[in-house]
UniProtKB/TrEMBL annotation:
Region (Disordered) residue spans: 125-146
InterPro entries in the cross-refs: BacA/B
Name recorded for this polypeptide: Polymer-forming cytoskeletal family protein
Pfam families, per the entry: Bactofilin (PF04519)
Amino acid sequence: MGLLSKQNRESNGHSSQTVIAEGTFIEGQLKLTCHIQIDGQVKGNIETDRCVTISAAGSVEGAIRCECLIVNGRFLGKVYSKSLQILEHGYLEGEVSATEFTIEKGGVFLGSSKNIKTEEVVPLESVKKRDKTLPQQSKKDAQQYA
């Protein structure tokens, strides 16, 4: 069965996929209603209700909010996803908020992770509004434990 066969379209309700080709550089915010495969470079935020795949040749720097994220290339930033997979050649550095998080042998994760319930996944705009600067005293307290 082909990727875009009739049976596949009927089962998942979506039949399209956006591909950022190798050698392509995009800077900005991407809002999609389909799967996206990144073989090139993206600097910015990606938001979709489907899956994001970063191939071995691909790289992303920014924030991603999606149903599932598959990393086989390089990602630097924040992830908000139900499912996250770092494959054998994948490299992820940053903050992860996910319900499911797996790392294959050879995959690299540097950063922090938080296990979330599906209903806790929030739009990127909401996250920016919640970020707050620590009071000066809190910074001093934190430094004494570093």
